[in-house]
Specification:
The structure holds 2 protein chains of 2 kinds. In chain A, 43% of the residues lie in helices and 20% in strands. Chain A is an alpha/beta fold. The chains are: A alpha/beta, B mainly alpha.
Chain lengths: 420, 301
Amino acid sequence: MRYRRGFTGLLLLAIMGLVLAVPVVYGVAEAKEVTIGFTGPISGVAAEYGQDCLNGLEMAVKDINAAGGITVGGEQYTLNLVKLDDMIDPTQAVNNCRRLLDQYKAPAVFNPVFNTLAAMAKINEEKGHEFLIMAYTSTPKVLEIGNKLLVEIPPPFTIYVRSLADLAMKEGWKKAAMVVTLGAYGDEWRHIFAEYWKSKGGQITEDKPANYYTETDFSAQLTAAIASKPDVILIGGPSAPTALVIEQARNLGYTGGFILVDQAKQDYVASILKGTELMNGTFGLAAVNQLPFAAMPAFDKKYTEQYKRMLTWEVCMNYNAMHALARAMVAAGTVSDPIAIHAALPKAFPLLGDKFPVEFFGITPNGCMEVAGSVQVIKDGKYSPVETLYWWFKTEEEFNKFKAEHPAPGNATMKFLKFE
Amino acid sequence: MFSTSRWAFWGQKHMQLFLQQIFNGVMIGSTYAIVALGLTLVFGILNIPNFAHGHLYMLGAYFCFFLMNQYGFGYWISLVFSVVIMAMVGMLVERLVYRPLQDRPHINSFISAIGALIILENGVIAIWGPQGHRIPNPYPGIVKLLGITMSYQRLIVIVSAIALIILLQIFIKKTTAGMTIEAVAQNREGAMLVGINVNRVSSITFAISSATAAAAACLVAPIFMISPTMGAFLGMKAFVIVILGGLGSIPGAIMGGYILGILEALGGGYLSAAYKDVYAFGALILILAIKPTGLFGREVN
């Protein structure tokens, strides 16, 4: 027995030795590697959302590496994506960032949730431990933090508030109820929407937020909202529960319209509801695979084949953002200095529709990527043409000049919205 | 004259709204009641809280989804199969997770229960992915009754839940197997002395508890969405209900389930859903403060 225990111990030691030895052996043979971090919800209530973001990043890394990686300062690097789960817990997200920094020397970390981003933004500027935060959130508040090493990937949702409210008002609708997701993001959406809606002469008849992450029965809130006889209800959180909200509202006899917050994607909602039958009079983000860019159909096909999942905005935006980051590292001539990489970001653009599923034109001085917003209306089971929203120009003239250089793709219409 | 009719109109409108909310609450309360019932049965027999109960509920919905999706079975057939499979899974869980630790300190069972729920949740994620899935609604369409809008599936949930609760009562009170369960719950040593095989009773109890949870899950699945985390939240609520109704008490679990459902609907509809969980825990604290054993709990000497 004694002998056997000793033998097992030796065996374990030998195995551990082998495990430790393998990376060393490989390390010599392989090209240099730079690790890009991801912390986000890979399990738990927001897992699906986190997984979609991750898929986009992973696909970009695969594509970049397949094309030979990046050349920085005369040396060849391949990208390595390390993903850690934080289950939208801010403490865990911060711990993950420290690990990505200490263990993997990651110059940049991607994260897709405002609550965790706010915590991360407190540690990423510590002297000697800087890292770049690639933030996939549309909350305008994230820019108010004033973090110098934070990049916001999607457009601030204020532009959606305004364009969707304007479109709904064109229907002659004045009375709006709200059943929006709880949390910092949803609260801000409700607040900004209500303010804008009222400023245009509209009326908020009922405001009943719901927890889209933990609840599946929204009938109590919807009953109250519908009883106030609204023309339109502002709803939304993650796409899947948003679909349930629509179905449950219709089952309570509601026939009016819906405005979807930008987290909920109309195309995904429709796929859950098995069609647009229940979605008559729905205003929201454009169906991503209907974006009129040349590279989209091939990208859509490639993604759905590889991942057996429907293509989403999360995938496309994160895919582009990873490319932008890789280009910035090349332009900065370093893979280890986040400040230099951040400074070189403007040189990474444009990423245009001939090669990318969505178009990124640049980065604003306060760190938001210049991506047009895209909205669509569903009426009588059909999607309207895409309306693209350009928000980063200071003046109408600037926009017109841009428009002359970049005419509207496909059958989309272009619209200028001044962003304050 | 004018004003009275106006008041009558006001009253009618608000009455309708109130009844609608009660209907919403009874619907969700039905599922709470069934799930809490299974939990309280197990607690009565083994004196351990089955932390994995919510996850067995989740697994039941996934089996139903799997059978419909993979083999194209009808809704009711899938439901029955799922219930049968889950009865067996329940027995398996009892045999593997709880029985080996029977004579150990309770904390050991707690830990192995948490292990079981982690395995169940991640197993489902590994097979079906983290995203939600939908079971197509077999009975779309709505009826209006007394100004209340009801969908057929919600009505089915309410009716089936009541039927299930009655059947379970008959089983426990009228059949020998059922009576042994009650006997063990009342006095374990006494039951052993009169020759009841306690291990077999544990096994049966777990089978019933998992089967009823599966039935509840399959019934509401077409209205909602199934996801790997659906059980965690419901499991937690079921615990609140069981404590609220009195640990181990069957009528307590049923009443507690409906009370919680209605409280949530009224709270979410009239006050704010931001505090939905506050209503549940608020009610719990209030009831325990007045009656520390829960609504129907027995005094423990």
